[in-house]
């Protein structure tokens, strides 16, 4: 675990299982239909139980799908987190389809939704870095910058980026050190 104290909150990198995060809300890197699937999305749906799928279907109702870069919220059901914030990150097409802006929006809209629901401690995955193919070396500065900006705006008091394995954790920690300086010890 590595922690950075910012002007209005804390940014933390954690190696671990996002579905076990002891936070107010976890962020789901969802598909546009909010129907579960593979990766983080599938793991969250499995851990939350079948009620999550029902809530997602009801939430989307006539909308059909959630737009890339937007976010919606459901209860967490069987998760440790009380809520799940679902956001759709961009599919990587080479950088010419506003992928950076849409990725930034996915993080910031999730934080804005957390703020609107008085949630202070939010855990994120590395949005779009799995099946959606966003290159890590490009995603990291955008994600970390968006989280820092959201914390500085007071949209949350604590944002954690939960990374699956030691290689991901080491990579993201290195990028965070480049952008934010050395982590603090408490």
From TrEMBL:
PROSITE patterns named in the record: MACRO
The Macro domain, residue ranges: 1-186
SUPFAM superfamilies, per database record: Macro domain-like (SSF52949)
Full protein name: O-acetyl-ADP-ribose deacetylase (Regulator of RNase III), contains Macro domain
Organism from which the protein derives: Humidesulfovibrio mexicanus
């Amino acid at each position: 675990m590595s922690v950075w104290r910012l002007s209005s909150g804390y940014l933390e990198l954690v190696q671990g299982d996002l579905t076990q995060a002891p936070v107010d809300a976890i962020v789901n890197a969802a598909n546009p239909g909010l129907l579960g699937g593979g990766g983080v999305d599938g793991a969250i749906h499995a851990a939350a139980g079948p009620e999550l799928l029902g809530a997602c279907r009801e939430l989307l109702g006539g909308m059909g799908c959630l737009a890339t870069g937007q976010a919606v919220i459901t209860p967490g059901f069987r998760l440790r987190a009380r809520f799940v914030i679902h956001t759709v990150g961009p599919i990587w097409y080479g950088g010419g389809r506003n992928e950076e802006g849409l990725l930034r929006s996915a993080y910031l809209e999730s934080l804005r939704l957390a703020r609107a629901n008085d949630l202070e401690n939010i855990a994120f995955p590395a949005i779009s870095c799995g099946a959606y193919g966003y290159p890590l070396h490009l995603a990291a500065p955008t994600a970390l910058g968006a989280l820092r900006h959201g914390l500085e705006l007071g949209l949350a008091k604590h944002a954690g980026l939960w990374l699956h394995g030691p290689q991901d954790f080491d990579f993201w920690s290195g990028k965070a050190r480049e952008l934010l300086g050395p982590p603090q010890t408490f």
